[in-house]
Amino acid sequence: MIRQIVLPGTFLAEAGSKKAGKGTFIENDAIYSARLGILEERGDYINVIPLSGAYEPSIGDTVIGIVEEAMRNAWLIDINAPYPALLGVEESPWKINYGETAKYLKAGEMVIAVIARIDEARNIELTMKSKPCRKIEDGFIIEIQPTKVPRVIGKNASMLSVIKKYTGCWIFVGQNGRIWLKCPDERLGSAIEAIRKIESEAHTVGLTQRIEKMLRDRNG
Amino acid sequence: MFGKISAVKKDYLLGLAKEGKRVDGRGFDEYREITIERNVIKNAEGSAKVKIGNTMVMAGIKLEIGEPYPDSPEEGTMTTSVELPPLASPEFEPGPPTPDAIEIARVIDRGIRESEYIHLDKLVVEPGEKVWIVFIDIHVLDYDGNLFDAGSLAASAALQNAIIPNERHELGDNAPLPVGKPPISCTFVKFGDSIVVDPNLDEEQVAEARFTVALDEKGDIRAMQKGLAGSFTLDEIKNNINRARIHAKNIRKLLEE
Amino acid sequence: MDELIKNGIRVDGRKPDELRRIKIEAGVLYRADGSCYLEWGGNKILAAVYGPREALPRHIQDPTKALVNARYNMASFSVQERKRPGPDRRSTEISKVTSEALEAVIFTELFPRTTIDINIEVLDAEAGTRCAGITAAAVALADAGIPMRDIPVACAAGKVDGVVVLDLTREEDQEGEADLPIAIAPRSEEILLLQMDGHLTYKEFEEAIELAIKGAKQVSKLQKEALMRKYKKVE
Fold first, then answer.
1. pLDDT band at residue A186, thresholds of 50, 70 and 90?
2. C235–A197: do the CB atoms touch at under 8 Å?
């Protein structure tokens, strides 16, 4: 079974009857969908949950970033957003002398960080001063569409628990669509397979059961 | 050709390779799934769409009348070009062919030319004056590694079903383009101590050296190219060629279906 | 000169208000953020969208909105006489009017300083490539999750042997008396692109544009079906 899919320009409701939520817009007293997504009614609000699209950074998001450049007093970090993100030395977990940033983090290395500030020009500032921030030393990273992150985590992390149970992997899901995995053996392959399946079937129901069955059949 | 390569990814690939494994579960000597679709473009004299895994390439053959080269007045000519349009990868930018695109085109061209796949001596219209020019245009549509082999296979498949457009030039009826046996290209990349065939995008991003060989139907060598800034030992090169001979045999069967 | 219309039937058997055969598939590429493969008569078009992504070099960025950058390109083998690779004046103009048509419906103010790159590759051409290209690009934009107020759609009408017809073939385009490609936002019928060349009286123009809008709305249904089809597939 599939939830109701709407397209950009699909009429959703009269503006008086409901409130325009995420992914919608109002035109001539009517609420329309702005995105290709799934219709969701939450109380008075009509939302459209997007099925695809770029990562839209929010303050407080935990993200997995790739260091692009170690500058004198900060690092430039790619967080899979259309905007560059900066991590200042004072926001890092280390005490760093001026100009020694590369000793701690160099280009190509990865971190788990939190979005601390976004200014009007959409410049993003990160911090590593909270849990679970750290430098990533090992494991494997895959990228999924950021809109699918909630599904990979699941309600109360139910989906993640299923994957961890059958694969033995440690998994960390960044809000920006990057997922870190560390698996004790080749069950990494089935963990990746499960994540990709969730990505392509995110809009369906009964997914958690199907993923559980798939992983049970693969790994026993 | 590449964006950011994460060190974690490279370490992971190297670690897996030490155990004889690849990220997508393939063996070191395993190609991804190959599909060939022929005659897909009506306006072209010959065409083929090839997929190797997620990499998708379209080759179109166009024939026009032109002058022969002065030193071979009784032969048609051929020219190969590769386009890497921005459509195929977030890293590709519009503009004139990059050195990467030119290298791929020239290597594919050498394979076809040196195996004498196209019978250029049968493409004369007026000796010394007018001959057929065969344009091989390879248009990459989706880039997930190994453009050398995908491009070469698409070109070979497109030439296989190409016609000489005599009707359009009032030279009689259309006829099949006279061709012999196609070359088969086989590409390897090396990272750490591991050398794998048919690299996907991840593997190309961490590759230190690359090797392509084009073989004819006898398993003889018609073209080779070593690429990237790393190195191979002579034994590794010989080994690659021997491995390629087996792959080429299998891929050739696909072309002959 | 051979007639292009005889007893109300065109050379390819169509009636004056009939569209050629159209096939649309959404989400066909692995790397692109959104994509669409479209066949329209003998046209074969592949469209891909990347973005929104950081616009570089920095000096081209617009601090208030996303840039919409469409690039229309014909493959060398897509036409009867091989086309040299690279942009020519015609494809540059088509790229420009296409960018402008698509920008009209995108909520660009949601993504300042970025660019939304739309790539249209014509793999096989048979008249009406710019309309086919915009139609495919619109599907690719929706597939990529770009927020829009509607899904734009394009269609052309023209005049052939004195009769106003919908969706010209190559022959009709070359030998006919007028060509009128348009793109609309189908909900409101707002005109996003309009070009014309040839000779039309005012009355003929009214007839032609009404026909083109009707044709565009039929194509709009196909775009929507293609997008829904992608998500109706379940393992």
1. confident
2. yes
Select from C35, C109, C234, C235 the residue whose CB has the most chain A CBs within 10 Å, as the one to mutate to test that interface: C234
Residue B160 contacts residue B45 (beta carbons within 8 Å): no
Q: For A7-157, where are the E strands, in sequence order?
A: 11-14, 19-20, 24-27, 30-33, 37-42, 45-50, 62-70, 74-78, 85-88, 110-118, 124-127, 134-136, 140-143
Preferred mutation among A64, A66, A135 to probe B, highest tally of B CBs within 10 A: A66
If you ran DSSP here, which 8-state letter would residue B212 be given? E
Helices (H), chain A: 101-104, 149-153, 158-167, 188-201, 207-219
Are the CB atoms for C126 and C170 separated by under 8 Å?
Answer: yes
pLDDT for the residue C235? 34
Is the CB of residue A214 less than 8 Å away from at least one CB of chain C?
A: no
Residues 6+ apart with CB under 8 A from C33: A52, A54, C48, C49, C50, C51, C143, C144, C145
pLDDT at C234: 47
Query: CB A5 to CB C151 under 8 A?
Result: no
Do the chains contact at A140 and B5, CB–CB below 8 Å?
no
C54 and A82: CB-CB below 8 Å? yes
Q: How many CB atoms lie within 10 A of CB B44?
A: 29
Per-residue pLDDT of C117-174, as tens digits, reads: 999 999 999 999 999 999 999 999 999 999 999 999 999 999 999 999 999 999 999 9
Rounded to whole angstroms, how far apart are CA atoms A115 and B170?
A: 69
Q: How far is CA A211 from CA A154, A173, A194, A196, B244, in A?
A: 12, 17, 6, 11, 39
A-C Cβ pairs (cutoff 8 Å, strict): 81
Chain C residue with CA closest to B55: the answer is: C30
Instruction: Give the pLDDT band of residue B62 (cuts 50, 70, 90).
Output: very high
pLDDT, average across residues B95-110:
96
Q: Which residue has the higher pLDDT, A61 or A188?
A: A61
**Bigger pLDDT: C231 vs B207:** B207
pLDDT for res A201: 87
Q: Across all residues in chain B, what is the average pLDDT? A: 94
Q: Mutating which of B2, B4, B5, B8 best tests the A interface, going by the most A Cβ atoms within 10 A? A: B8
Contact C139, C98 (CB under 8 A): no
* pTM of the full structure: 0.93
Asked if residue C22 lies in contact with residue C38, where contact means CB atoms within 8 angstroms, the answer is yes
Helix (H, G, I), strand (E, B) or coil at B65: strand
CB A78 within 8 A of CB A85: yes
**Torsion of Cα atoms, C120 then C124 then C126 then C127, to 10°:** 20
Burial (0-12, 13-18, 19+ Cβ within 10 Å), C234 = middle
Residue ranges of C 8-47 with Cβ closer than 8 A to chain B: 29-32, 42, 44, 46-47
Model confidence pLDDT, tens digit, residues A107-131: 989 999 999 999 988 999 999 999 8
